[in-house]
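@here heads up, posting the sequence + SMILES for the nicotinamide-adenine-dinucleotide run so it's all in one place. Ping me if the SMILES looks off, I pulled it from an old spreadsheet.
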Amino acid sequence: MPVTAVSGSASGIGAAVCQALRAAGHRIIGIDRADAEVIADLSSATGRQAAIEAVLEQSEGVLDGLVCCAGVGSSAACNTIVSVNYFGVSELLDGLADALAKGAAPAAVVIGSIAATHVNPDQQPMIAAMLANDEALALQHVNALGQSGVAYASSKYAITCSARRRAVDWAGQGIRLNVVAPGAVETPLHQASLNDPRFAEAVKAFVAPMGRSGHPEEIAQVVAFLQSPQASFIHGSVMFVDGGMDAKVRPGRF
Ligand SMILES: NC(=O)c1ccc[n+]([C@@H]2O[C@H](COP(=O)([O-])OP(=O)(O)OC[C@H]3O[C@@H](n4cnc5c(N)ncnc54)[C@H](O)[C@@H]3O)[C@@H](O)[C@H]2O)c1
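bot reply: prediction finished. Complex structure tokens:
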């Protein structure tokens, strides 16, 4: 039975991923702040380290899959966005890479976002700091800017780029790694943006060509496919699952 660790397993997309992978026969080691096999706070370095150690203990050092879903939205504090969405993912990837290398046909997915395409990386020094793995400097930049919407888009751009860089390295160890970039999906995170007067109008206007938001299960099915043997040659890809939104906004970029 494949063993897969899933961060953000208690809610939304992460919970749907757990359900889809369980249905595909995986044993799940969920990581979240509550209601999970591993209770940990991925916003701090100590919390991330505790999560990695607990997953290694529960998996006996061998993982077949990893899905990083844990994240916070634009309505969270700027520094939390950077710490959870970037460092809470990159440190899990690095800390669990050796366990994945020992797994059977190992594969990992990072949940990015279509928001990653909404930022110009050359204009956001926090992105370079994240990619340089300098959390203190990234927090300095994001706090100085004080715009959580830009922090969210930057964190998602940086983690997407970081995952694609890792994909090149990880190929030699036989670990596949892909990014799923959802558009608007009906979850508590999305609802929090709708409830936030700073973002409500923009979020309501962000309607995909298909005319609706996605359901967590529609993201989870794509993740389950990417984690399956059917996706054996898909590696380093960014898969938009967004009802056609990226095609509408950037038809010439692919
Ligand atoms: N919902 C959307 O419209 C949407 C769109 C694009 C990308 N995403 C991404 O999808 C992922 C899942 O989000 P969701 O919409 O399912 O939201 P959600 O709020 O339903 O789930 C997020 C989960 O992450 C966990 N989490 C947050 N901070 C944590 C921390 N410090 N330590 C441990 N766990 C923590 C939460 O407890 C929660 O269970 C996120 O990375 C989000 O950025 C969501």
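MO: The first helix runs from residue 12 to 23.
MO: One more: The mean pLDDT is 97.
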